[in-house]
Amino acid sequence: MSAQPLDSSEHRSGALLDHLARRMRLRSESVLAPLGLRPRHLVALTVLRAGGGTGQQALATILEMDSTNIVGLLNDLEAKQLIERRRSPEDRRRHVVELTEDGAKRLSEAECALASAEDEVLGALDPAERETLYKLLSRASTGTAVNCTEAICVADDTC
Amino acid sequence: MSAQPLDSSEHRSGALLDHLARRMRLRSESVLAPLGLRPRHLVALTVLRAGGGTGQQALATILEMDSTNIVGLLNDLEAKQLIERRRSPEDRRRHVVELTEDGAKRLSEAECALASAEDEVLGALDPAERETLYKLLSRASTGTAVNCTEAICVADDTC
DNA sequence: AGGGATCGTTCGTGAAGCACCAACTATTTA
DNA sequence: TAAATAGTTGGTGCTTCACGAACGATCCCT
């Protein structure tokens, strides 16, 4: 699928993506530590916010992680009461994972805390460009557009 | 520097960046293996192509890696004759690192080989959007625009 | 009711990436 | 000459991660 041949000018984003993600992650770690979160957790929470109510096998597919490793990740998050696992009524084998209120709040806090990190890494881009970047990344990461009705960053003082 | 306060709508790209980079990296590894390269090598080569002729300490700063680990990375690349270390005439302590012809060629090959991976990961974006993404990432990663006079993918059959 | 498949879970193992420290050489600079 | 800098080497330990094996619970099909 998607055998669309690109034009002659080949601009591969892979390495750049990797590079920027690394730089972002390095800064994120120190900022996120006081919140008890790690970059991976952030990714998971973000995905959950975007497409909540997924079983954790589906989550494993989205995050492209081994399902056994998903368990540990979710254990962390559940211990902190940022997510909830509920058994699906339709299929009681299934654990439906959802963000709790605390989780959404913590995610917003984390995003606020990351503002300075992002300013550093994306310093060369103006706000409009960052918004464009966000939209592109968002579309790419979910395959479908993520409706932006969340994350108003109501949280605390740091913002 | 860059204490520009963002507007009210908070869209943090960090997690998405991480997510996409991971997906890309997973696919890249298998594709790159036959070329004897790893994603990290690709990143280094890409940075070198963009801002060649840097000392390796500067490289460490750009890549935000420990300089001791840079050495190993460059050793790999030099052993494959993809880069050259030359002593700077001005400061003979310094090793100026530059892409060799082989290196540029190999990089192009690698980028071609990554086309399918990128198609998968960025499948939701059309070519114009990918180009936009590339430009944004490129600007962000170097701080300044990268002149796009390279990587015409002259290489081989796979492209 | 029985049998096979599926979801989540736990445990363990091994490889890889990476930060960090310490020591050394060659070279520049004060 | 002494101190600082660029690169190199070697080692140590932490963390992440993929992968395998086994298990209970549950669904689905016959």
Automatic annotation (TrEMBL), chains A, B:
Example GO biological process term? response to stress
Coiled-coil region: none
Ranges for domain HTH marR-type: 10-142
One Pfam family this sequence matches: MarR
SMART domains assigned to the protein according to its UniProt record, in alphabetical order: HTH_MARR
* GO MF entries: DNA-binding transcription factor activity
Q: How is this protein named in the record?
A: MarR family transcriptional regulator
